């Protein structure tokens, strides 16, 4: 039986100076994580290691995100990370120092009867 999505959390993060897409993405993931509590999983006695965690990161330059660092930042589950074009770069007209905004969607799937 295919796993069913039981949780979807969204977050946003930024790097205001330096144009670090991974830093902005990590902040977006942490923002999403801090919006959720896994009390339902505890109540159902679900082993956190069994969770299938799908992370999607949106940034303007997906190739500049270290997906392994994103994956390693998640505390539980079998994590997959996909980085896509999205987010926002806000250019400073006086300097070559964009503010990078990243978005994150974290979906948790469980194999339920």
UniProtKB/TrEMBL annotation:
It comes from the Bacteria. NCBIfam families: lin0512_fam. The lineage of its organism: Bacteria, Pseudomonadati, Pseudomonadota, Alphaproteobacteria, Acetobacterales. This is Lin0512 family protein. Keywords: GTP-binding, Nucleotide-binding.
């Amino acid at each position: 039986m295919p796993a069913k999505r039981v949780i979807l959390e969204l977050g946003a993060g930024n790097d205001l100076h330096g144009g670090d897409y991974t830093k902005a993405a990590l902040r977006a993931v942490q923002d999403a994580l801090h919006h959720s509590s896994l009390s339902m999983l505890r109540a159902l006695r679900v082993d956190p290691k069994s969770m299938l965690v799908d992370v999607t990161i949106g940034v303007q330059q997906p190739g500049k995100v270290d997906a392994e660092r994103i994956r390693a930042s998640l505390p539980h589950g079998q994590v997959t990370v996909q980085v896509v074009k999205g987010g926002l770069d806000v250019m400073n007209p006086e300097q070559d120092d964009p503010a990078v905004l990243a978005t994150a969607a974290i979906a948790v799937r469980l194999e339920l009867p």
